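We both want to read discrete structure tokens more fluently, so let's practise on a single case. Once you have written the record down, we can walk along the chain together.
***
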Amino acid sequence: AAASGAAPGAVRVEYVLADAAAMPQLGPFDVATAVYLFSHAPDREALHAMFRGIRANLRPGGRLLTLVRNPGGFPHVDWSPYGMRILDRLPDGDAPLLKAQFLTEPPQHFEYREWAHADFAEAAVDAGFTTVGWQPSRTPPADRARDEAYWSAYRAWPVSSLMTCTA
């Protein structure tokens, strides 16, 4: 049913604010997306809980599509040309804490955990996902501002990857 005042046939959208490590039952859904969510898990227990919560909200055969950061795979890459810089890497618990900045004006500082792809895959399998995969980075065509060398370097050392999981 459309909300009062909404156009006939309008779809009602509901936003829910929740701790991803204590995800309430909201589904089941066919697809879930997460953009850089898992790099904020403070420890392995929370990382696994996030994947379990998402899996519990997907139908059998449902898919999780998530962008995950890649610094662990490329610890010495300079991503400044792509708008991000890692300032510091601090040993801290289950995964190093990275201090970084977006190269905006003014720069925006942020922190996240350096989980490896293997950590994400382990958490997904533990949560009951039946398949886990990684999609290669796709880039736009080269142009005057960003030539093929710019994009080939990004494809060799991507800032992030698309992880796909099937329930």
Summary: The mean pLDDT is 92. The chain is about 20% helix and 30% strand. The chain has one domain: 21-166. Residues 21-166 form a domain with the Rossmann fold fold (CATH 3.40.50.150).
